[in-house]
Amino acid sequence: MSEENLGSVHILVVEDEAFSLEAIRKVLNNIGATSVATASNGADALKLLEDADCNLDLIICDIEMPEMSGYEFVRMLRYGTVPRFKDLPVLMLTGHDTPKNLRHARTHKIDGFLVKPPTAESLRRGILDALKA
Fold first, then answer.
1. pLDDT value of position 96
2. Can you give the CATH number for the domain in which 25 is found?
3. 93 is in which domain, residue-wise?
4. 62 with 70: CB under 8 angstroms?
5. For 96-116, how does the pLDDT look when each residue is reduced to its tens digit (9 = 90+)?
6. Which of 19, 88, 117, 120 has the smallest number of CB atoms closer than 10 Å to its CB?
7. How far is it, in rounded angstroms, from Cα 36 to Cα 117?
């Protein structure tokens, strides 16, 4: 996947903070990723995926959210709650990388972390790396 093709990438962003969600959406649009769906927590994201009649290529998900955390969401996703999306690449949004986050990444088959607030370059690189894997 080349950087010029980010316009064809369909992304779901799961983030409970409206300001952060809008900021991420703007940065994604600025790097050419214009097909962006959103959900405010893991439970809403699972519902959206169950009802989705479109293709998705990648999920960007916050770790700490009410109702269902990012890790719980990814666990449900990986266990096949919505079978057609169980292997979708996932990037987690975090305040910082910690050994605990790295353990969770291996356990839940997470494709990478983005430190908040993500820059255009970190989003671009994270997306391209996740889609290559």
1. 66
2. 3.40.50.2300
3. 3-132
4. yes
5. 666 776 676 667 788 988 988
6. 19
7. 17
Residue 39: beta bridge partners?
Answer: 14
**Of 34, 37, 13, the residue nearest 24 (C-alpha):** 13
* Beta strands in the chain, from DSSP E residues, in sequence order: 10-14, 35-39, 58-62, 90-94, 112-115
What is the count of structural domains for the chain? 1
* Tens-digit pLDDT profile for residues 3-56: 557 889 999 999 999 999 999 999 999 999 989 999 999 999 999 999 877 789
Which residue type sits at 88? L
Burial of 26 (0-12, 13-18, 19+ CB in 10 A): exposed
Q: What is the pTM of this model?
A: 0.91
Q: Nearest 5°: CA angle at 19, between 13 and 20? A: 45
